[in-house]
Amino acid sequence: MTKTTKTSSAKTTAANPDAAATGDAKTIIMNAVENLHDTIAVPEAAREFVAQQAAKVQEHTEATREGVAEFNAQAEKSAVSFIASYTDFTKTLFDMTAANVRDSFAAMEKLAAAKSLPDALKLQSEFVRDNSKANFERFMQVSQTAGNAITHSTATAREAAAKAWSNASKAA
Q1: CA-based, 20 to 30 A from 69: which of 31, 42, 55, 125?
Q2: Within this chain, do residues 64 and 149 fall inside the same structural domain, yes or no?
Q3: What share of the chain in percent tops pLDDT 70?
Q4: What is the pLDDT of residue 167?
Q5: Could you list the residue range(s) of the whole structural domain that residue 140 is in?
């Protein structure tokens, strides 16, 4: 295996043509690049251009960071609004179920106190009628609550998306 030595300048290679002939291509290219390295100057306009572009990128990065932070805040607001609407809806469903259970136990107590079959049938008929009417009203309330939840959540999400889009447009 042959050991090559690095020459420090092209002058050495030029002064010793045998070194150029015996040196490998890598050494020759490295010497040429080293000699050019010190003679190449970067124009002032190019340096200014790079500095300006770096400043613009930094500004855009900061604007993007602020936009993402605002987007996250709006997404959080939207999620909290949605969850609050959902909990209102489920609370209404639970209240409806609890009222049905109370009404059913009250009807069972009345049925247990009935002295005859006609009294029991009359009480059962009244329970079905009253419970159907109450359930209709409860379902209307649940529907209203669900509609309000959807309307509120949609409005909040739309508002959050508009703010996020506005911030994204400013960042760009």
Answers
A1: 55
A2: yes
A3: 82
A4: 64
A5: 44-171
